């Protein structure tokens, strides 16, 4: 990105499918005074990193909060376990679900980081841990492009 800004003198940075890429580019966009458009990177707080950033898609909060709220209100679940890929979008999804679920009267009884992107070949120990807690619901966020066994 730095080469695009300093050598190629681009006017606009866009694309950003993955949150880590957008997060690391935010300071460059600010320093270079280049608008940065997020097409997919779903971590909600990325837009807070620079006044040069705009989002034209979703954030993890859209789905995570709604799922938490629905689990508490529509499913009448009282307890939940959340499993997530341990990187910004996963943590964002965890917080969104937890906020929606607990606002609806539920309680998240365990939060299970299930490795970083591309580092978890077998989800069995994480799912067993969730099962052992006996929650009413188990909410999971994984990055399917990196962890195809979860899709």
What would the average pLDDT be, to the nearest integer? 88
**According to CATH, what is the class of the largest domain?**
Alpha Beta
Q: Measure the end-to-end span.
A: 31 Å
Number of strands: 6
Alpha plus pi helix count:
5
Major sheet summary line: 3 strands, parallel
Shape by Cα distribution: elongated
Strand content: 15-25%
Q: Strands of the biggest beta sheet: in what spatial order?
A: 1-2-3
Find the structural class using helix and strand composition.
alpha/beta
Q: What is the CATH architecture term of the largest domain?
A: 3-Layer(aba) Sandwich
Helix percentage: 25-40%
Q: Looking at this structure, what is the CATH superfamily of the largest domain? A: Response regulator
Order of helices and strands: HEHEEHEHEHE
Draw up the topology in text.
Blueprint: H1 2-6, E1 13-15, H2 19-32, E2 36-38, E3 53-55, H3 60-73, E4 79-84, H4 88-103, E5 107-113, H5 124-133, E6 137-141
Helix pairs in contact: 3-4
Account of the 3D structure:
The structure is a single chain. With 151 residues, the protein is an alpha/beta fold. It folds into two domains: 2-55, no CATH class; 60-143, Response regulator (Rossmann fold). 39% of the residues lie in helices and 18% in strands. It contains five helices and six strands, in the order αβαββαβαβαβ. The chain has helices spanning 2-6, 19-32, 60-73, 88-103, 124-133; strands at residues 13-15, 36-38, 53-55, 79-84, 107-113, 137-141. The strands form two sheets. It has a three-stranded parallel beta sheet with strand order 1-2-3, with helices on one face. α2 links the parallel β1 (13-15) and β2 (36-38). It is elongated.
